[in-house]
Amino acid sequence: MFSTRNFNRSKPVLFILILFPSLLWAYQFVTGNLGVNPIEKLMDELGLMALRLIIITLMITTLSNIKPLKSIVVLRRMIGLFAFYYVCLHFSTYIVLDHFLDMQFIIQDIIKRPFITFGFISFLFLIPLASTSTNNMIKRLGFKLWKKIHYLIYPVAILASMHFYVLVRADKTEPVIYMGIIILLLLHRIFKRLTRPQLAQ
Amino acid sequence: MKILSSEITPYKTYLNRRKFIKGSLASALLATVSSSAFANHDNNSSIYNKYLNENDKLNSYEEITTYNNFYEFGTHKKHPHLNSGNFKPRPWTIKIDGLVKKPQTFDLEKILSNVTIEDRVYRLRCVEAWSMVIPWQGFQLSELIKMAEPLSSAKYVQFVTVFRPEEMPGQQKRTIIWPYREGLRMDEAMNPLTILATGLYGHEMPNQNGAPIRLVVPWKYGFKSIKSIVEIRFLDTQPETSWETLAPWEYGFYANVNPNVNHPRWSQGTERRIGEFKRRETLMFNGYEKEVAHLYKDLDLTKFY
Question: What is the ipTM of this complex?
Fold first, then answer.
């Protein structure tokens, strides 16, 4: 049931499912059905989706440690690239719709406001991940170096959740839940690392 | 921004519906009393246009009543509209205490029978960098202060929101320290721009906008305009206010709209007027500089933000 083949087969369905919200929000935005403050709403939805997808890629790695679910890892690249897709939409909504390409203002905003700084660095770190996602790039870089580059997903996830945490004014439950999940997933990796040499002995 | 009459329940119908629902003699009387206070209003937005600046347009009734920060009903903008249905704004009393001649509790209807309700079309600028233009109905806070007879030692006024977790689901969670509290310096409270609002667009104040009575201080960020007030206290020291207590590095006691004093979270130089696509420049004191700048001539606004 959880064979590589079946996971590969589910990809087209997953592709449409993950793509669909962006199309829906774009449609709602254009037709004026995104509420009273549509730019804010669009930005929030896109950002939240991106954060959730980032967390899902981390979860996939953890799940793939469970023997029968090993093959789930074939879904990780697509979901990771979708995370990047949503981050790009989120960022361009901020640049184009929210601030109308007022670059001077935007640069000030990125420097001065910690939550925007976190979000921006997180976005920058995602660029090398997305651009080295092809099989060809893995080959060219060698798996070891490629893997090292892709450790960037940890600061990306932490910064993205901090970006959300700082943005929320009072009830921080949701960002705290995301942060908690990220920390658990990271702890699991550290634990695995620490126990591996002992196994070798 | 014309409001279709179909979008708004005419005020008379609204009152009649309330009467019908409640059916009691008391609420029928109550409705009659408050309707007389609103008698000169209808649901026609054009009557408010004469109060507008040429750069401003009224926001629609829908915008004003579905996009609110009122954490007592939840932290999301749509929560107050969705979760305030069980809130009962009548009967209502306001307790007056602190440095006054005689502490007392006023019935809201008694207050309303002693004041004249007038139209006040104000810009509202939220600290989150969005804004609206709202046609309020209300009366000057100074009128109530005169009724309260504060002592000359009173330098500040504190306001407290009602605490009813069973009717206000947001209060069941400790997002902020309940009840919500706000405050003004006495001269700010006495300024003619400062009103207690009891309605908008000629309707009784909707629950999500702070029924039945709320403060409106148009030159300050929206969080100063405390909603659903049950207590007004006169003090000789600056009172604690909710947001300042929660995050003093972000929210000050004064909270005057000021494009030159930055906030760690939002740039205050520009704002998005709800309903508009491009941001607009934020005005000093939200455009009420002429009326209020003199209050702060001896104050360093970068320090007392």
Answer: 0.87
